[in-house]
Amino acid sequence: MKNLIILLLTIIIVSSCKNNYTEEQDEHINNFPVEVREIVREFLKEGKDRGHKLNIKKIHHIYLVDKITRAKYLEAGCYDHHDHSIYIDTTNFEWSALSGKEMLLYHELGHGLLHKKHDNILFKDGLNPASIMNCCTLPYWNEQTIYKRSYYIDQIFNENTLPPQWAM
Ligand SMILES: [Zn+2]
User: Fold this and answer.
1) Which of 2, 8, 35, 83 is the most exposed place for a label (fewest CB within 10 A)?
2) How far is the CA of 3 from the centre of ligand 1 (A)?
3) What is the DSSP letter of 123?
4) Where in the sequence is the domain holding 35, given as residue range(s)?
5) β-bridge partners, 64
6) 2-51 per-position pLDDT tens digit
7) pTM score, two decimals?
8) What is the CATH number of the domain that holds 77?
């Protein structure tokens, strides 16, 4: 009986920890701009499906900046290591489509959550970047090339992902 009580208590503690973890993460995501929340949740899910337990609280905030503030942040997006925040320039062309929003955020989350640096290697075709951590060859995928998305997501979570057929 005593053992059963200990077992039940352990299960309750373990499951409440799990819930708190998820709830805390979710609460934190709700502080981000509404446009990015689902994309961030999707990134965490893609990571979880591949065995990564990511802590979104490491990203203190995501700022959407426009032309007025753009001078300070010249790139389409950046991850600022000083304030642990992501800045996205919403006047960037890529931001106008959902695939572009996802692509830009995934790159910055790669910096912030996966500690990735830029990887500017292209595939042998000389056109397609081998990673979404490529700094300058955009878009990695768009509405027309959505079939590329799954490779890039696999690759950001596993650098040993084999090159895809479409890049041969
Ligand atoms: Zn970058």
Assistant:
1) 2
2) 52
3) P
4) 31-167
5) 88
6) 777 766 666 655 555 555 768 889 999 999 999 999 999 999 999 999 99
7) 0.85
8) 3.30.2010
